[in-house]
Each structure stands twice: as structure tokens, then as C-alpha cells.
Write a structure and sequence with these properties.
Helix content: over 70%
Number of helices: 4
Order of helices and strands: HHHH
Largest sheet: none
Distance between the termini: 7 Å
Number of domains: 1
Number of strands: 0
Length: about 140
């Protein structure tokens, strides 16, 4: 199987870093705007859960494709599991809040966001470290 080209590696790394920054900015923006937002906006919370779920499910596809082309790496494996954990904790909790009115697990939402950020950073490190090592 051919190795990743320098451009493939570069775009994977930059995309992963871009997603990590986007998640961090999304969290910072929501907290900065908290006083200006309605205390309870179920439609907004559901939309956020759905958007993050969709983006990170695509991220899992990307991790799977990278893992298929690159040597086995604990960084890539961690990336996939962290993105999955982020979907469960962040999106799952927001789905519970909006669809079932279940607010008890509110504190896990930031853990999901952190898992997203760490997942993307792990992907960037995994692709970086793969370098020119031969793939599977």
C-alpha cells in the first residue's frame, strides 16, 4: 500500500488542528456569550449536538482511512476512541437534555468537548509521527 504523500499528511494534520481549534473556539464563544443567550434553548442545543455529532462522525471516517494507510499507531487509535467518547458525552448529553429533559449529566458536556479536542490533536500527532514509515 502506498505511503501518504506530503500533501496528504499536511492536509490531514492541518484539518485535525483546525477542528481542534474550532471546537475550542466554539466552547469559548458559547461561554463568552452565555449571558446573552436564552437560559434554555432546546432547538439550539439540539442543533449544536447534531452538528458536532455529524462533524465528528466524519472525523471518525477520516481516522479510519488514515489508520488504513498508516502504520499501526496508538495515536490514531486514541484519536478514534476520543472522537467517539466526545460524540457520546457532548452530543449524547445535549440530546438527553433536549429530547428527554434530562439535565443531571450537564457537567459531562465539557468533558465531551475536551475529548473532541484531544481526539483531533491525537490525529495530528499520529499523522505527523507516521512520517515516511511504511504503511500496513
Amino acid at each position: 500500500m502506498p505511503r501518504l504523500t506530503i500533501h496528504a499528511r499536511l492536509f490531514l494534520i492541518l484539518g485535525a488542528l483546525g477542528m481542534a481549534v474550532a471546537v475550542a473556539l466554539g466552547a469559548a464563544g458559547m461561554h463568552a456569550l452565555k449571558s446573552h443567550l436564552a437560559a434554555s434553548d432546546p432547538a439550539g442545543w439540539f442543533q449544536a449536538a447534531l452538528l458536532y455529532h455529524q462533524l465528528h462522525a466524519l472525523g471518525l471516517v477520516g481516522v479510519g482511512l488514515a489508520a488504513a494507510r498508516l502504520p499501526q499507531s496508538r495515536w490514531l487509535i486514541a484519536s478514534g476512541w476520543l472522537l467517539l467518547a466526545g460524540i457520546a458525552l457532548f452530543s449524547g448529553n445535549l440530546y438527553l437534555r433536549t429530547l428527554a429533559g434530562f439535565h443531571v449529566l450537564h457537567a459531562v458536556t465539557p468533558l465531551g468537548g475536551a475529548a473532541f479536542i484531544l481526539g483531533w490533536l491525537c490525529l495530528a500527532v499520529g499523522v505527523w509521527r507516521a512520517g515516511d514509515r511504511p504503511g500496513p
